[in-house]
Write a structure and sequence with these properties.
The complex is a heterodimer of chains A (77) and B (147). Helices cover 56% and strands 0% of the residues of chain A. By secondary structure, chain A is mostly helical. Chain A starts with a helix and ends with a helix. In chain B, strands 1, 2, 3, 4, 5, 6, 7, 8 and 9 form a 9-stranded mixed β-sheet that branches. The chains are: A mainly alpha (77), B alpha+beta (147).
């Protein structure tokens, strides 16, 4: 899962060397603003075949939260 | 993004939104420079945390929407900080709920579900974005010759 999430982050932030870690949040990444958040969620939706809710735009502000949400959605698929 | 039912959405181009620092000052420039005329007064839209004014060329029903943040906490403050300018494209639609569902199913992200908007006489608007980060607004179709 980390590899796939990482791939989406690298694409959105156009940084092939970008590393992610569980505690990483919007405060750790320059440019992780509301628009980048939407791009990330669309990228993750396409990669994992899930749908996020509108509320999750403001909730999924760390890698840990993103992973938890993805795990929940993938279990219920 | 693809949408196999494009022709069924029945969207109409409504306006382009431009983020400016001062709506009144920018409106004066657009009217003098291009020949636009004001189609609304400057409205304070609390939901959008913005001041809004619509312009159009005389007799046209395609608009320019000038928007400015109503304070530092406005959702538009970041857009202005980045330089402002072209911000979003808006389409009008008869059934905003159904259009949102179809565009969501086609891969767009629903940022704000349909909500009444003071700038449109309480007709509903919704906000979506695509993977490139382009912002799209939808507005419920209004009576002819209204904004």
């Amino acid at each position: 899962m980390n590899t796939r999430i990482s791939r989406v982050f690298r694409e959105v932030f156009d940084n092939a060397q970008m590393e992610i870690w569980d505690e990483m949040s919007t405060e750790d990444v320059a440019g992780w603003d509301s628009l980048a958040q939407v791009k990330l969620l669309i990228g993750l939706e396409e990669d994992f075949g899930v749908k996020f809710t509108t509320q999750e735009v403001t909730q999924l502000t760390s890698i840990a939260n993103i992973k938890k949400s993805l795990e929940r959605k993938l279990v219920h698929q | 993004m693809t949408c196999d039912e494009d022709h069924l959405l029945n969207l109409h181009f409504h306006h382009v939104g431009i983020v400016v620092e001062d709506v009144e000052r920018s409106a004066a420039i657009y009217m003098q420079r291009f020949g636009y005329e004001a189609r609304s007064s400057i409205v304070h839209d609390l939901l959008q945390t913005a001041y809004v004014q619509f312009l159009s060329f005389p007799g046209e029903q395609i608009f320019l929407e000038l928007v400015s943040p109503d304070g530092p906490e406005s959702s538009l403050a970041l857009a202005l900080k980045k330089g402002g300018g072209l911000n979003h494209i808006c389409y009008s639609t008869q059934d905003i709920g159904e259009t949102c569902q179809k565009l969501r199913a086609a891969g767009m992200f629903l940022i704000r579900p349909p909500t009444e908007a003071v700038a449109f006489n309480s007709r509903k608007i919704a906000w979506l974005a695509d993977k490139n980060g382009t912002l799209f607004e939808l507005v419920e179709k209004g009576p002819e010759n209204e904004i």
